[in-house]
């Protein structure tokens, strides 16, 4: 069973969960979610003898913070140090992946491996198809009108269903979880003093740690193109395209994500001498 923890960092109280013992795997959530998006993955890696840690960044979930100068990288270091972790495997989705890359560039000696899902990259370019631009316009309209309920529904279409998919493609408890996680984020007080890291886009080739890259084929076209670019630029990266999945596969297809994640962790531990499973793009 996951054990909750809280950590005071400056004017923030970071809320997290930890489960298991062994080499640490640190989970970093997407910008439309919180630590709950990783529950299935945390349980899976803990059962295989790893320690799983996830926390809500400032502006998300149960974490609270005053509006003060802060750095997500510094907050991550504080979480690691509080758990006596020198190096870990980092699993990040979207903005969580971007944080993992920023951390890897700043502290390469603390990276055992990376799993990046539909990842952000600080300074990366963005393009959109006509269909994607239309849903982005709907998002901007809801934001400008201050209609957070509508904004939440539009973002569920964008990120859970996929911008080119039918709205409501993913339903049931998974959709309810997404809407609740994103609702909390949308209603958090604004944080205006984040110290943003320098662009990482032109430095991704410096990330030499073993990395597993995943992206759903229903995700934004720019993120699929970014996935392809990273698979070419990162020297020890293995790429997997997930068929019929959008931006949050950890809750949409936890079985698939867990399988790929555990294979990767097994390879890192040296239990798999053959990396061919990761050399070809996987589809499921």
TrEMBL record:
One of its GO terms (cellular component) is membrane. One of its GO terms (molecular function) is hydrolase activity. InterPro entries: AB_hydrolase_1, AB_hydrolase_fold, AB_hydrolase_sf, Epox_hydrolase-like. Keywords: Hydrolase. Residues 25-258 form the AB hydrolase-1 domain. The keyword Hydrolase applies. The keyword Mitochondrion does not apply. PANTHER family: AB HYDROLASE SUPERFAMILY PROTEIN YCLE, MONOACYLGLYCEROL LIPASE. This is AB hydrolase-1 domain-containing protein.
């Amino acid at each position: 069973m996951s054990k909750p923890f809280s950590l005071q960092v400056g004017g923030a109280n970071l809320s997290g969960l930890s489960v298991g013992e062994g080499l640490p795997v640190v989970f970093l959530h997407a910008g439309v979610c919180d630590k709950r998006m990783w529950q299935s993955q945390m349980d899976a890696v803990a059962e295989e003898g790893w320690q799983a840690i996830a926390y809500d960044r400032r502006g998300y979930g149960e974490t609270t913070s005053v509006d003060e100068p802060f750095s997500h990288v510094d907050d991550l270091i504080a979480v690691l140090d509080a758990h006596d972790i020198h190096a870990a495997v980092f699993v990040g989705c979207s903005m969580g992946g971007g944080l993992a890359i920023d951390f890897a560039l700043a502290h390469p000696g603390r990276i055992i491996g990376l799993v990046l899902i539909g990842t952000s990259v600080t300074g990366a370019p963005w393009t959109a198809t006509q269909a994607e631009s239309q849903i982005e316009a709907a998002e901007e309209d809801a934001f400008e009108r201050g209609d957070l309920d509508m904004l939440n529904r539009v973002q569920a279409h964008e990120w859970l269903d996929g911008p080119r998919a039918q709205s409501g493609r993913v339903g049931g408890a998974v959709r309810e979880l997404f809407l609740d996680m994103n609702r909390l984020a949308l209603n958090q007080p604004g944080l205006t003093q984040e110290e943003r890291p320098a662009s990482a886009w032109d430095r991704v080739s410096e990330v030499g740690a073993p990395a597993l890259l995943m992206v759903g084929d229903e995700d934004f076209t720019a993120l699929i193109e970014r996935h392809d670019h990273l698979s070419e630029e990162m020297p020890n990266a293995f790429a997997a395209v997930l068929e019929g999945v959008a931006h949050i596969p950890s809750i949409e297809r936890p079985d698939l994500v867990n399988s790929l994640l555990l294979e990767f962790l097994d390879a890192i531990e040296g239990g798999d001498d053959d990396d061919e499973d990761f050399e070809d793009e996987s589809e499921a």
